User: Fold this.
Amino acid sequence: MKRLHSKIIKTGIFSALGAISLFVGSWALAEGAFDAQKNIALPIEQREFQNINPAIKMAAAYGNRSKGGHGSFGQFPANFETPSHIHSGAYHGVVIKGVMTNPFKGEANPPSLKPGSYWYVPAGSEHTTACISEVPCEFYFYAEGAFDFKPVK
Assistant:
């Protein structure tokens, strides 16, 4: 058991997902996004992905991403990159599957983000988001406000 725990910590999954749990829990209690007294479990088989465009799919974990605070799952196809864009609000993300990058404006060599990796995008920060692996990517992201996508020309 001790060896398994060490392996989880070394991969960063435990710390990244723990940070999400703490943030989501404290935010939800303050904002009333869901009943904090009600147990919630979302089995992977019950996630309902919707096409945002032909390449990107998203599924809600909690909240409504078009109206306010939310936690959402996203899927990108293999070897896919979004156009350069900004968001009105900040968001946090964690890679679940595949390898991603999040190049910020002018960044020549962004780090490869493997499963368990975390990223943060401040409001108004120009960037792209990419799945750079040969397998599709999946990620979890959350924000205090609504999600939008504003291409940068």
Remarks:
- The chain has one domain: 2-151.
- The helical segments are 2-11, 13-31.
- The first helix runs from residue 2 to 11.
- The two ends are 52 Å apart (CA to CA).
